[in-house]
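Database export, one record per block. Field names are fixed; values are copied verbatim from the stored entry.
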Amino acid sequence: MAGACRGPLGSGELIREARVLRRGPKALRLLARNRDYRRLMLGQTASSLGSATSYFALPLAALAVTGSTAWAGLVGTALYVGQVLFGLPAGVVVDRLDRRRVMLAAEAAGLVLYAALAVLLALGDAGIGVIIAVAFATGVASVFFNPAESASIKALVDPDDLPTALANNLARMNASSLLGGPVGGGLFQLARAAPFLANAASFLVSVISLARIRRPLSAPARDDGARDLRAELLAGLRFIAAEPVVRTVVAANMLGSLAFGSGLMALQLHWVQSGTPAAVVGVVTMVMAGCGLAGALLAPSVNRRLRPWQPAAAAGLAWCGALLWGAAQVPVAGIAAVLGVGSLIQPAGSTALSARILHLTPDALQGRVQSAAWVCVRAIPAAAPLLGGLLLQSGDLAVSFLALAAVQLVAVALFLTAGIRTIPRPAAWTAPTADTAG
């Protein structure tokens, strides 16, 4: 089994690890010389910023059209529903077709969707149904693109550079989150259609960049015999269930997403209800995004020195501390500091463990495993805002935060199991031996 944990490093592995440690400071320069990887990153940097801008502006557009906060909230729900419903089928498609073409189709769909929305808003013809449909279709397109991108990154970069490449992705996403709100709000103030027109332009940049990738990104060749569609849909979930490391990481992320997502929503609502200015709550979000960006930039250096479980468990303990401080009614500044520390630490653990999953997964299963993991983890945050609101209404805020902290501690405990603690630093990984049968 691919996930079998390895024992102490042999002399050859120690030599290889030392070589990678010496190479570490040059990792970013090596990736920068990789033309196809650079093209992928260029397109996705533009697309990520455009998407973050639109995600901020979509609820504003819904509110402007309907005057209802309920409809505005439904926009985010529609995005999640699209992701969850189509996650497993998307994995099958990614493992059957050329992955570059899958990414091109998803980005071209985004270009058409947001260009059409911008035109309709400019003409005053965009009703709430159109906005919700665009959000839903965006979620659908994302679950086709994301596993195809992950599989493509593994194909484009050297295995030693995979954690660094994923850290670059996380840095890109955190930077987009940091800038998306101000840019989206500013463009929306200029014109309702402006942020969506900008997003359409970012998708165009991505399409052009993807079209210039020259390295083959086709899924592995498969036999032409009849295949059981149901078995293919469930193949990713079965791999996760059978692979100890992957199963543990996904379970920990699901529990952590539930506890932290619900707790953060409850904290933010509680702060607002207690009279904290909304701008201050927004600053806390910016602190987390800024620390996450710094953590992503530092992640390659951290991962050359620590095993993956160490930053993963440390970040989980920071989230737990924030929840406990919420139960103790610590002032906003104190909780924001703990959230910032967690956001700084978390990228190293998440990128190393994500790289480990990519490393262990046979190429023929990349799309289905990534999609299945995405569905498992994304299905939980969809319920987290609702749970956070319900906990706040329960009346006993301290007990609610203590319960969420207990769930977060279970997630931390999973990172402390032997199967996760014995994962070596990425420099010491060797090629997986799992079968490539889909």
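Remark 1: Confidence is low (pLDDT under 50) at residues 1-24, 433-438.
Remark 2: The radius of gyration is 22 Å.
End of record.
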